Amino acid sequence: MNFWEYLGTRHQQLLTDAFQHASAVFQCMVVATVLGVLIGVVTYRSEWAGNLATTTTSTILTIPSLAMIGLLIPIVGLGVPPTVIALTLYGLLPIVRNAIVGLRGVDATLVDAATGIGMSRPMRLVRIELPLAWPPILTGIRVSTQMLMGIAAIAAYASGPGLGNEIFRGLASLGSRNALNQVLAGTLGIIVLALLFDAAYVLIGRLTIPRGIRA
């Protein structure tokens, strides 16, 4: 059976795995984005706090994904929980770092002008600083998403959802007739999803970032 025949016979299962893969990454990115931006907002004004946040999230990223999921299994069990926790933690670094850089890069004169017209600190943050810091934050989100697309495949090790199951089944049956087709289908599916997500982020950037800021 060639690759295209394999896709024809397994397309329903592949679509289900692709949907679960994309859903897991999307939901974890939402949580990671909220946490990452909050951490950036809390720490960007302090040099040591910002460095601590960046160093901590960098340390998390150095933990091998198999080891991370393996350590989580005895605590939260198999399936979705270790997948969600691991992906959320791995997605934090680019968002935290870019949020801190973006917020620190806001022109101080604009913040002073907002203060001069009576804006409170929360209002300045919401109406001035975060909108101006949005382009680097969005870049961090894009980088995190691309990383998580690949890392999410490891979730199959803990009976998690997604295209990693196709890859692991192929690796477990190397030498069989469809082993290569399984690995190839799972890998190409992840690549396609990553490209689709990135295209969506480009569109979001065009819709949410004023042309002057993009330039």
Automatic annotation (TrEMBL):
InterPro entries: ABC_transp_perm/SBD, MetI-like, MetI-like_sf. One of its GO terms (biological process) is glycine betaine transport. The keyword Amino-acid biosynthesis does not apply. It holds the Pfam family BPD_transp_1. Its main location: membrane. The chain crosses the membrane at residues 24-44, 65-93, 179-204. Keywords: Membrane, Transmembrane, Transmembrane helix, Transport. One of its GO terms (cellular component) is plasma membrane. It is a multi-pass membrane protein. SUPFAM superfamilies: MetI-like (SSF161098). Residues 18-201 form the ABC transmembrane type-1 domain. It comes from the Bacteria. PANTHER family: GLYCINE BETAINE/L-PROLINE TRANSPORT SYSTEM PERMEASE PROTEIN PROW (PTHR30177), OSMOPROTECTANT IMPORT PERMEASE PROTEIN OSMW (PTHR30177:SF4). Belongs to the binding-protein-dependent transport system permease family. This is ABC transporter permease. It comes from Streptomyces cupreus.
